[in-house]
Structures are given as C-alpha cells and as structure tokens.
C-alpha cells in the first residue's frame, strides 16, 4: 500500500503541478475500520512528498451511502487538486459527477472502473482488470494448488459492485472450463453466517475450494465455520 501511494505522488511531483502548491487529499472508509491499513495509507502519502509544495489532507468517512459525496464536497472546499482513495466502485460512481464538474483527479487504489466510468476524464484506478485477476486465480488453483474444482463454494457480497464483478467473471471462466460452482448470495451490510452454513451443508460439503468475494471479517467467519465442521474436508480458501 505504501508503495502504491508513493508511486502516485512521485508521478504528481513530476508534473506541472510541482511548480505550484499542491493539495493532495487521501480518503476512504477502510482507514477508519482497519487502523493498520490507515497507517500504511498515510505513510505512503508522506513518503511520496519530494518537495515542500505538496500538502497531505485527510478526509476519512464512515460506511454510509451519502458519505462519499459529503467527503468529496469537503475535499473540494479544502482546495484539493488530486485525491487518492475511494476504494469501492460504488463510491467512485457516487462522486463521479463532482469529480467531472470540478476537474479533480481521483486515483482509486482498489475501485473497479466499469462501463459507466471507463470514459471519465478524471477518475483512474490502480486496480488490475477483474477478468485478468480471476483468470490468474483459476489458473493458479489448477496449476499450482492442483485443485480438482470439486463443488467450488462461492460466496459473494452482492451489495459491493466489485464483488459482483468478480463473481460474474468467475462464472464465465467456470462455464468455459465446465466447472460447476455452488453460488451463495450474501450482503456485507446484513451478513448471515447461519445462512451460509446451511447452504454449504446442503450443496457444497466436501468441496475442495472456497472462494469468498466478501469483506475480510465475513471471510474469516466463513473460514472458521467450515474448518470447524466435524467430518469435513479442509478446502483451500
């Protein structure tokens, strides 16, 4: 994470911005939920400062549907020339109009650039295209982990557009390779571990792999649940 932020700021320092005072805002929700992530995020920004013309301004926000828009308004008022953050595709969509109207460069670390944003003049991402990532995942499982792809159990938080994008790409690859997956739909906001457990026991017990397109906390709960089941194989997660 530090290296990603560092690279972005080094690029900015080499542009025309470098000759004028530059305000770079860092933003997102993860830095509030996971403090260690926030430390790396902020340290990366500070490491990227190669001259005194750059000032780092922090605008973190809560997990709320209107929070990205409010944070964007605050950053505009703070005189930000560029923004690093907005880790989710939903957030990028929410602030796309503000970024366009104010001509502010927004660099997302993890956000997916979908069809609605692919031609946006000022929103960019460091994220590798989803199809490429998922193909690498399946290839690694087949070639390195020697998976047989026996009833792969896939859990997806459908209230995250990036997670849905991962799932849809995986479905296409499974269809191409004639792999029959077991698909469970979940949500980040109303996660139900019992529902995941019931679906797993009914359709996927004995699976050799779990693929979890969920937030890390939910993924950990699912992993612990599956590994604690009696007389159950230990799938790759």
CATH topology term of the largest domain: Rossmann fold
Count structural domains: 2
Low-confidence stretches: none
Rg over CA atoms, rounded to whole Å, is 20 Å
In terms of DSSP E residues, the strand content is 15-25%
Major sheet strand order = 2-1-3-4-5
Number of β-strand runs: 8
The topology string of helices and strands comes to HEHHEHEHEEHEHEHEH
Mean pLDDT: 81
Q: Which secondary-structure class do the elements indicate?
A: alpha/beta
User: Could you name the CATH class of the largest domain?
Assistant: Alpha Beta
Distance between the termini: 23 Å
- Biggest beta sheet summary: 5 strands, parallel
Brief overview, please?
This protein is of the alpha/beta class.
Helix and strand arrangement:
Blueprint: H1 2-13, E1 22-28, H2 30-33, H3 35-47, E2 54-60, H4 67-77, E3 82-84, H5 89-102, E4 105-108, E5 123-125, H6 130-143, E6 153-157, H7 161-176, E7 182-186, H8 193-204, E8 210-213, H9 216-228
Parallel strand pairs: 1-2, 1-3, 3-4, 4-5, 6-7, 6-8
Helix pairs in contact: 1-3, 4-5, 6-7, 8-9
Q: What does the model show?
A:
There is one protein chain. The chain has 237 residues and is an alpha/beta fold. It has 2 domains: 2-125, 3-Layer(aba) Sandwich (Rossmann fold); 130-228, Rossmann fold (3-Layer(aba) Sandwich), CATH 3.40.50.2300. It has 9 helices and 8 strands. A 5-stranded parallel sheet has the order 2-1-3-4-5. Strand 3, helix 5 and strand 4 (105-108) form a beta-alpha-beta unit. Helix 4 runs parallel beside helix 5 (89-102) and helix 6 packs across helix 7 (161-176). The mean pLDDT is 81.
């Amino acid at each position: 994470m530090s290296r990603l932020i560092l690279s972005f700021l080094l690029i900015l320092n080499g542009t025309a911005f470098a000759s004028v005072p530059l305000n770079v805002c860092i933003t997102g929700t993860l830095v509030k939920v996971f403090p260690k992530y926030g430390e790396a995020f902020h340290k990366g920004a500070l490491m990227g400062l190669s001259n005194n013309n750059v000032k780092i301004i922090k605008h973190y926000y809560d997990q709320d549907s209107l929070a990205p828009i409010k944070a964007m308004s605050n950053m505009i008022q703070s005189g930000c020339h560029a923004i690093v953050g907005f880790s989710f595709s939903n957030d990028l969509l929410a602030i796309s109009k503000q970024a366009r109207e104010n001509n502010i460069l927004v660099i997302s670390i993890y956000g997916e650039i979908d069809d609605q944003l692919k031609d946006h003049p000022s929103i960019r991402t460091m994220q590798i295209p989803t199809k490429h990532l998922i193909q690498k995942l399946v290839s690694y499982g087949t070639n390195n982990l020697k998976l047989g792809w026996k009833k792969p159990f896939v859990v997806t938080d459908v209230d995250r557009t990036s997670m849905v994008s991962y799932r849809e790409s995986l479905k296409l690859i499974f269809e191409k390779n004639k792999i029959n997956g077991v698909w469970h739909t979940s949500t980040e906001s109303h996660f139900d571990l019992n529902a995941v457990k019931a679906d797993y026991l009914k359709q996927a017990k004995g699976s050799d792999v779990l693929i979890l397109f969920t937030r890390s906390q939910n993924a950990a709960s699912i992993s612990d649940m599956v590994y604690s089941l009696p007389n159950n194989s230990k799938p790759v997660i």
